[in-house]
Inverse folding.
Protein backbone atom coordinates (compact mmCIF):
# COMPACT_ATOMS: atom_id res chain seq x y z
CA UNK A 1 0.00 0.00 0.00
CA UNK A 2 1.09 3.56 -0.62
CA UNK A 3 0.97 6.37 1.94
CA UNK A 4 -1.97 7.91 0.09
CA UNK A 5 -3.91 4.65 0.16
CA UNK A 6 -3.25 4.23 3.86
CA UNK A 7 -4.31 7.82 4.50
CA UNK A 8 -7.54 7.23 2.57
CA UNK A 9 -8.26 4.25 4.81
CA UNK A 10 -7.49 6.37 7.89
CA UNK A 11 -9.83 9.09 6.59
CA UNK A 12 -12.60 6.51 6.14
CA UNK A 13 -12.06 5.24 9.69
CA UNK A 14 -12.10 8.80 11.02
CA UNK A 15 -15.47 9.33 9.31
CA UNK A 16 -16.78 6.19 11.03
CA UNK A 17 -15.39 7.31 14.39
CA UNK A 18 -17.11 10.67 14.03
CA UNK A 19 -20.46 8.95 13.49
CA UNK A 20 -19.82 6.58 16.39
CA UNK A 21 -18.78 9.38 18.78
CA UNK A 22 -21.90 11.37 17.97
CA UNK A 23 -24.16 8.32 18.28
CA UNK A 24 -22.57 7.52 21.64
CA UNK A 25 -23.10 11.12 22.77
CA UNK A 26 -26.76 11.00 21.73
CA UNK A 27 -27.27 7.82 23.75
CA UNK A 28 -25.51 9.36 26.75
CA UNK A 29 -27.84 12.35 26.50
CA UNK A 30 -30.81 9.98 26.55
CA UNK A 31 -29.40 8.42 29.72
CA UNK A 32 -28.91 11.93 31.12
CA UNK A 33 -32.60 12.68 30.64
CA UNK A 34 -33.54 9.52 32.52
CA UNK A 35 -31.08 10.34 35.31
CA UNK A 36 -32.48 13.88 35.55
CA UNK A 37 -36.06 12.57 35.79
CA UNK A 38 -34.98 10.13 38.50
CA UNK A 39 -32.90 12.73 40.37
CA UNK A 40 -29.69 10.77 39.83
CA UNK A 41 -26.19 12.25 39.49
CA UNK A 42 -24.58 12.63 36.07
CA UNK A 43 -21.28 11.18 37.27
CA UNK A 44 -21.26 7.43 37.87
CA UNK A 45 -17.72 6.30 38.71
CA UNK A 46 -18.73 2.64 39.01
CA UNK A 47 -20.14 2.62 35.49
CA UNK A 48 -17.08 4.38 34.12
CA UNK A 49 -14.74 1.88 35.74
CA UNK A 50 -16.76 -0.96 34.21
CA UNK A 51 -16.27 0.64 30.78
CA UNK A 52 -12.51 0.95 31.32
CA UNK A 53 -12.24 -2.62 32.59
CA UNK A 54 -14.25 -3.99 29.67
CA UNK A 55 -12.25 -2.07 27.08
CA UNK A 56 -8.95 -3.19 28.57
CA UNK A 57 -10.16 -6.77 28.72
CA UNK A 58 -11.05 -6.81 25.02
CA UNK A 59 -8.18 -4.65 23.76
CA UNK A 60 -6.29 -6.55 21.03
CA UNK A 61 -3.58 -3.86 20.69
CA UNK A 62 -1.37 -2.38 19.41
CA UNK A 63 -2.56 0.42 21.72
CA UNK A 64 -1.61 -0.22 25.33
CA UNK A 65 -4.39 -0.51 27.91
CA UNK A 66 -3.33 2.77 29.49
CA UNK A 67 -3.83 4.51 26.14
CA UNK A 68 -7.26 2.92 25.75
CA UNK A 69 -8.26 4.18 29.20
CA UNK A 70 -7.06 7.70 28.36
CA UNK A 71 -9.04 7.70 25.11
CA UNK A 72 -12.21 6.52 26.81
CA UNK A 73 -11.72 8.96 29.69
CA UNK A 74 -11.69 11.77 27.15
CA UNK A 75 -14.78 10.49 25.33
CA UNK A 76 -16.64 10.06 28.62
CA UNK A 77 -15.52 13.47 29.91
CA UNK A 78 -16.84 15.18 26.79
CA UNK A 79 -20.16 13.34 26.92
CA UNK A 80 -20.52 14.09 30.63
CA UNK A 81 -19.84 17.79 29.90
CA UNK A 82 -22.49 17.76 27.16
CA UNK A 83 -24.92 15.96 29.45
CA UNK A 84 -24.44 18.61 32.17
CA UNK A 85 -24.92 21.46 29.70
CA UNK A 86 -28.09 19.93 28.26
CA UNK A 87 -29.69 19.01 31.58
CA UNK A 88 -28.99 22.47 33.07
CA UNK A 89 -30.38 24.24 30.04
CA UNK A 90 -33.75 22.57 30.19
Amino acid sequence: MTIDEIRQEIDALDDELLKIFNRRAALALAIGEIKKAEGRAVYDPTREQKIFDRMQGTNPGPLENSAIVRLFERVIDETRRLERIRTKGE
